[in-house]
């Protein structure tokens, strides 16, 4: 690293639905107060973090908007929620398209299931020599899911926030990376203002996806929002090749959004590689969990999923510490909603306590003004305390005056 150069900051905004949007609003407000937002080189976002992060990039960075107007719009979005506008979209032409897709996919899937069952029965009663031929037979649905509830989310995001903006229409600095997950290969799929794609499939030939589409893919929580099923054209090894991809919530692969910020990534393999000196990772989903006793399979499986999820985030946090210890990055901040208050350096007297805020659900329903204020204030307070304690050399003294 060049010690004389101004450190490059990578900012990651985690997933967590509306809870993440409100918490990250406070984190961004703190970074704005400290004069650090203008020094961010890469903005990496996931799910709920993608909603607020992409909107911040499009409005404040790309159009020169002021932070106060941005905050007012985000507060209005949280108060309205995304779930109700999505429901209203059902009573439109798009809703009819979603219903038609659901019916067609369901009928085809049922037909294929019945054929497979008949073939299985046939293998049991026919001679072994013929049965071997049937075992090699594969049947899959030829249909793409051309519309779904996630399409409704995309339409609402476009109406309320992004106004038909495409990735290649946004300002290139800082680099915006919207993280999704590609289910066919189990790999990260990143939409970026620099480039988009996956190391498995290659780089998108045309980086013209709409911002609303990228954010909806990043936020498509699998239990409630179907994955996007589409065929895209990729460049890899000097060749163009169309491939069918299945895109879902970026949190499935990396809920913290740190994947594109690691210092050991190579541009020969990965996309969106930008050297980073300081990492700020704002997490709205990490904390000490205590689920109720699990007596039924659904609750047990949810607890299993959450446990695996938490362990993956533990590994990422450990990697942050190792990157700093070995000098790969200069420093990092990790303001997270579930922060134990007793470990917070120099907390303010009016600190929003962990127990008051960390258990808000991770959905996109309307949020009360009380919860918007509580979550955003905690995000601001945590970020200010940690920044003043761990990266004071990056902060102008005049920027930390009381708001």
What does this structure look like?
With 403 residues, the protein is of the alpha/beta class. It has a single domain, classed as Cytosolic phospholipase A2 catalytic domain, CATH 3.40.1090. Helix content is 43%, strand content 15%. The chain is built from 12 helices and 10 strands. It has helices at residues 17-33, 48-61, 67-80, 83-89, 93-125, 128-135, 149-162, 211-218, 251-254, 297-325, 354-357, 369-390; strands spanning 9-13, 40-46, 175-182, 187-192, 197-198, 202-204, 228-236, 239-249, 278-282, 331-333. Strands 1, 2, 3, 4, 5, 6, 7, 8, 9 and 10 form a 10-stranded mixed beta sheet that branches. The two termini are 35 Å apart. The mean pLDDT is 88.
Write a short abstract of this structure.
The protein is of the alpha/beta class and 403 residues long.
Task: Note the topology.
Blueprint: E1 9-13, H1 17-33, E2 40-46, H2 48-61, H3 67-80, H4 83-89, H5 93-125, H6 128-135, H7 149-162, E3 175-182, E4 187-192, E5 197-198, E6 202-204, H8 211-218, E7 228-236, E8 239-249, H9 251-254, E9 278-282, H10 297-325, E10 331-333, H11 354-357, H12 369-390
Parallel strand pairs: 1-2, 1-9, 2-3, 9-10
Antiparallel strand pairs: 3-4, 3-8, 5-6, 6-7, 7-8
Helix pairs in contact: 1-2, 1-3, 1-12, 2-8, 4-7, 5-6, 7-8
């Amino acid at each position: 690293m060049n010690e004389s150069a101004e450190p490059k900051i990578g900012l990651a905004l985690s997933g967590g639905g509306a809870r993440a949007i409100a918490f990250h609003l406070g984190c961004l407000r703190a970074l704005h107060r400290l004069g650090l937002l203008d020094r961010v080189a890469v903005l990496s976002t996931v799910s709920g973090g993608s909603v607020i992060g992409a909107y911040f990039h499009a409005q404040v960075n790309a159009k020169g908007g002021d932070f106060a107007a941005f905050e007012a719009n985000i507060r209005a979005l949280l108060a309205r929620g995304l779930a109700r506008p999505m429901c209203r979209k059902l009573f439109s032409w798009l809703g009819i398209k979603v219903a038609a897709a659901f019916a067609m996919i369901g009928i085809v899937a049922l037909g294929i299931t019945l054929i497979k069952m008949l073939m299985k029965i046939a293998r049991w009663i026919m001679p072994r020599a013929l049965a071997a031929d049937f075992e090699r037979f594969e049947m899959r649905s030829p249909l793409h899911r051309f519309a779904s509830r996630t399409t409704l989310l995309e339409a609402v995001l476009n109406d309320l926030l992004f106004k038909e903006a495409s990735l290649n229409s946004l300002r290139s600095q800082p680099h915006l990376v919207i993280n999704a997950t590609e289910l066919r290969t189990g790999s990260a799929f990143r939409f970026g203002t620099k480039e988009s794609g996956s190391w498995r499939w290659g780089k998108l030939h045309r980086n013209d996806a709409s911002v609303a589409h990228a954010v909806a893919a990043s936020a498509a929580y699998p239990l409630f929002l179907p994955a996007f099923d589409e065929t895209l054209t990729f460049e890899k090894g000097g060749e163009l090749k169309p491939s069918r991809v299945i895109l879902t919530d970026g949190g499935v692969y990396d809920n913290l959004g740190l994947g594109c910020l690691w210092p050991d990534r190579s541009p020969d393999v990965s996309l969106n590689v930008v050297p980073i000196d300081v990492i700020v990772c704002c997490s709205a989903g990490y904390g000490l969990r205590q689920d109720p006793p699990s007596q039924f399979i659904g609750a047990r499986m949810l607890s299993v999923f959450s446990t695996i999820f938490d362990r993956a985030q533990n590994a990422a946090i450990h990697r942050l510490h190792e990157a700093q210890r070995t000098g790969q990055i200069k420093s990092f901040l990790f303001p997270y909603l579930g922060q134990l208050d007793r470990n917070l350096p120099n907390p303010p007297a009016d600190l929003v306590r962990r127990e008051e805020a960390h258990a808000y659900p991770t959905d996109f329903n309307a949020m009360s003004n009380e919860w918007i204020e509580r979550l955003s204030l905690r995000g601001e307070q945590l970020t200010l305390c940690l920044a003043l304690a761990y990266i004071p050399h990056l902060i102008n003294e005049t920027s930390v005056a009381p708001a």
